[in-house]
Amino acid sequence: MCGVFGIHAPGRDVARLTYFALYALQHRGQESAGIAVANGGRITAQKDLGLVPQVFDETALQALTPGSAAIGHCRYATTGASRWPNSQPIVRHRKGRTVALGHNGNLTNTAALRAELAERGVRLETTSDTEVIAALICEHPGTLEEAVQAAMERIEGAFSAVVLDGEKVIGFRDPDGIRPLVLGDLDGSPVLASETCALDIVGATLVRELEAGQMAILSTTGVEVVQAVPARQVGGAALCIFEFIYFARPDSRMDGIGLHAARQRMGERLAAEAPIEADVVIAVPDSGTPAAQGYARASGIPFADGLVKNRYVGRTFIQPEQGLRDSGITLKFNPIRDVIEGQRVIVVDDSIVRGSTTTKLVRMLFTAGAKEIHLRISSPPIVSPCFYGIDMAATSELIAASRTVDEVAAVLGATSLAYLSLDGLQASTDHGADRFCRACLTRSYPTAIPADLVDGGRFRFETGAAAVRA
Ligand code: 5GP
Ligand code: MG
Questions:
Q1: pLDDT tens digits, residue range 358-402?
Q2: What's the domain range around 107?
Q3: Of the residues 16, 77, 313, 393, which has the fewest C-beta atoms closer than 10 A?
Q4: Are residues 269 and 221 in the same domain?
Q5: Measuring from atom 9 of ligand 1, which residue has the nearest CA?
Q6: CATH number of residue 375's parent domain
Q7: How far apart are CA 383 and CA 366, in angstroms?
Q8: Which residues contact 310 (CB under 8 A, 6 or more apart)?
């Protein structure tokens, strides 16, 4: 997973605006951040491992100023390890062309394209699928638009990407529309972003979402949207349903739907599908909160804050020593004993992936005095891995992949467990199933998945030390 942003606004502080947009997209990737700026045909870039404010300070932003256009990226690695050369934007030079590229998604034919590029004598310096896209664009003899279009015809899988040359920004979205990408307007200047929350923070308004297979060309003449490759889905797109369940921010709108309200509807439906007598409804914050509110409203059981989340614990935190890890303590959550003690508690969360956090939470809540713990999950069981950019692990690590709901409940140690049905989830989105990729829930993938991907995992191109960091 990742967040991307692009802006073409001569006369504005494009680096600073990109910085703020990345701040709004930080939830989409916390491993690295980067900004590339175009000024008079030249590109300047800065990127590093870490959170957006760790990578950029005032001095860094001033070094990227002035500029007429910029792109930005924050990364959550899915192909390639979390290493500096794999951070983005990736900058590539070739025969007078320089491009910077940021990518959200995951290609499924990286191995084939890497082999083909190697045969053509094109050197790749990193292990990420993103460099393959940058290389295809850079090697192309035509205009940037032609190069992007040609690359879109070759790459497969999920990609919502932004590319910058000395002057233009082009945003493009895969023909299945798996990852989101929106077009906005900032006082007459075009901007692109993974989510609408990034438009809000820079003061831009939503113009429209890019459709599957489209590219948007941002230049001094404004913005032009072109259907670069045909959309592959009958319903127009196969947007990742996990964006609705968990990934995107609740204040974002996707496919015309406000995600906070959609998640509340998931909770309401869950209450109707899986009612239980209890004293209090609590959420696993923050991602479970809208669904817990919906569950409480529909069931009439009061909602309370039962868990406090430490919001400074990111994905990159230092691993605790083994004793602390085994103790079942989570660094992220602490229960509020006054709310929990002696109560029959309904605990609402958006999803269970490996079950590791959830197991610890259940233990922690019983330790805090809960009489019963009824887990209610506002998505169906996750049974199959994602090859399109959500870091969901191999099938063997997914707790629900080979267990019944009762067996999962027993592993987690909960009094009861229920998941939202697939139909209930679908209805909560206000769209039909033909608008979504639901492969993690149904095992049915919208694109072909090559065998090397099924077995390989994201470190398959790593050698040496990086390969063992799993
Ligand atoms: P589990 O208990 O299965 O280990 O984790 C489930 C929890 O992780 C849920 O609270 C869910 O909101 C959260 N979650 C789901 N997907 C992701 C992800 O891709 N990254 C992170 N950091 N958390 C996730
Ligand atoms: Mg959560």
A1: 999 999 999 999 999 999 999 999 999 999 988 876 898 899 999
A2: 3-238
A3: 313
A4: no
A5: 351
A6: 3.40.50.2020
A7: 27
A8: 331, 332, 333, 334
pLDDT at 327: 65
Distance 214 CA to ligand 1 centre (A): 31
Q: What is the pLDDT of residues 158-213, one digit of tens each?
A: 999 999 998 899 999 999 999 999 999 999 999 999 999 999 999 999 999 999 99
The answer to whether residues 272 and 393 belong to one domain is yes
Does 112 have pLDDT greater than 90?
Answer: yes
- Domain for residue 294, yes or no? yes
* Residues having C-beta closer than 5 Å to ion ligand 2: 287
- 352 and 208 in a single domain? The answer is no
* Average pLDDT, integer, range 429-436: 94
Tell me, rounded to whole angstroms, the distance of Cα 88 from its chain centroid.
Answer: 15
Within this chain, do residues 181 and 300 fall inside the same structural domain, yes or no?
A: no
pLDDT tens sequence across 316-355: 556 667 676 666 667 889 999 999 999 999 999 999 999 9
CB atoms within 10 A of CB 153: 12
Average pLDDT across the chain, whole number: 92
> For the chain, how many structural domains are there in total?
2
User: Per the domain annotation, does 458 fall within a domain?
Assistant: no
Pocket of ligand 1 (CB under 6 A): 246, 284, 287, 315, 349-358, 390-391
User: What ligand 1 atom has the least distance to the C-alpha of 284?
Assistant: 10
Do 418 and 330 reside in the same domain of the chain? yes
Q: Is the pLDDT of residue 27 over 90?
A: yes
Ligand 2: centre distance to CA 184 (Å) = 29
pLDDT of residue 465: 33
Give 358 Cα–ligand 2 centroid separation in angstroms: 9
CATH of residue 156: 3.60.20.10
For 396, list phi and psi in degrees, rounded to 5.
Answer: -65, -25
Q: Which atom of ligand 1 is nearest to the CA of 242?
A: 16
**Rounded Cα distance, 290 and 263, in Å:** 6
Q: Which of 203, 238, 273 is the last residue of a domain?
A: 238
Contacting residues for 166 by C-beta, under 8 A, at least 6 apart: 38, 40, 41, 42, 43, 98
For residue 246, the model assigns a pLDDT of 96
Name which residue sits closest to atom 22 of ligand 1, judged by CA. Answer: 315
Which ligand does the CA of 356 lie closest to?
A: 1
Position 162: which residue type? V
How close is the Cα of 293 to the center of ligand 2, in Å?
14
Residues 174 and 293 in one domain: no
CA distances from 13 to 37, 67, 101, 247, 361 (A): 10, 7, 20, 29, 45
**307, 357, 379, best to mutate for ligand 1 pocket (most atoms within 8 Å of CB):** 357
CA of 330, nearest ligand number = 1
